[in-house]
Amino acid sequence: MRKNDKEILRILLDDHIDTDRYGLGINSFCKIRWNLGVEWSRRQNHTVESIHEDVQAIRRLYPLAGAREMKSILFHDRDMDVERSLIIRYFHAYESDMVKERKARRLKRRRFWAAGVNDLVAVDQHDKWKRFGLALHIGEDPFCGVTHWLRVWHNNNNPKLVLSYYLDWAEVSGYIPLITQSDLGSENYGIANAQSILRQWHDPRLEGTVQHRWMRSKKNVKPEIAWSQFRRRFAPGFETIIQEGVTAGWYDMTRPLDVLVFRWLFIPWLQTEINAYVERVNNTRKRADRNKVLPHGPPNDIFASPERYGCLDFKVKVEPEAFEYVREKFAPPSDPVFELVPPIFAEYAGQAYAKIGSPELNSVNIWPVYCEIVLSLQDITTNRAGSCQDYINSVDEWQVAESLQEIEPETPYPLIDGRALFGGDEYLGGVNEGWGLDTELEQRLDAMEDDNEFEPGEVHGLVFSEDEDNGANPEEKDNW
């Protein structure tokens, strides 16, 4: 999370060390850190030349990464702590044209209200990769900006699949937010019904109500921002890699064998890369913004310890049997939508992969491995050997199932009565059944503010710095 020694030590003493029995000072902590080989950027002594090879390798996957993004990727993916000023010098030396392009600002500001952590979770789908046979889905806590999941699959419009993403996260956490939020669409019926039932399970007063917000077009703001960031920060490099196979004719979505091998190989690889991206973003503090009266810190840290940032947490504890009930009712694990490819096909693809040595996949060898597997399985399909009839049958059955899915889409689940549409700048969370903070909650916030010792230049976690406040004077800062 890029915290300094004092911040790390404070968390250790507050959350992990019994200070009645043990003590740990800053000097002892620094010695421990040095012995573990964890060094700050100055001690790593990087130069423009020493980071050149790593930056060039990163550029293949992240061609548009700026200084902040490059610093984060080097830190999380390459274990290199490089000063931002050094990265900027590198850009001016090797990428002067790209520096000029990144200077353009094209921001659109929108207003969003949230009362605290776990007030709501906003979900959304992303279809820009459907031309490759890939579909994306995200779930985010708008208050702290933490991404709970970002999943890639061959489908994102099945309510069972979408609900499974939500339940996978919620079951690990053991709790749910007060309310969920999404665009209109039958793919979100599963989440709407499950969220409503789970809330009613633990609060009978909510019986008959919908604990889900339906947002009009372009009003589900936070996921839209997340997708915009994804499109700029992650997608370009990986789209280029996938497009190489399409352009070369290796991957054709009209050929069933190509589609199955592509799904079997690319989706797990892409999910691993996406998980790394999400982990990096969740552990990186957002850029200071004077227009946001929100806590300023790494999203994961704010979400895990909201009281440290003077924030409220509205999580609702859920019993395991409640999760089991809604999963079995709305997203049974036996449903075919949860199969990456038919099991028999996966078995034969695994054998073909093992024959070439099961190499670790990366951006360089992913297409050669794909081509090897396609050729191996193509021989089976062409020869139609009797011993492989189960494989041939599985491919044929998959083609029939895919065609039926396109012609006769699954009937969506009916919504619980009372669905409402929202839009505009009103508060859309679930605190006090949608009315927001009351006197008691405001007093809790005031008490947190009194208990927290804010550093100079901080107001409720909003950090100001000389190079990011555009020269605002101290009086304006006090007003903020």
From TrEMBL:
Domain of life: Eukaryota
Domain Integrase core: 116-292
Region described as Disordered: spans on this chain: 455-480
Name of the protein in question: Predicted protein
Organism: Laccaria bicolor (strain S238N-H82 / ATCC MYA-4686) (Bicoloured deceiver)
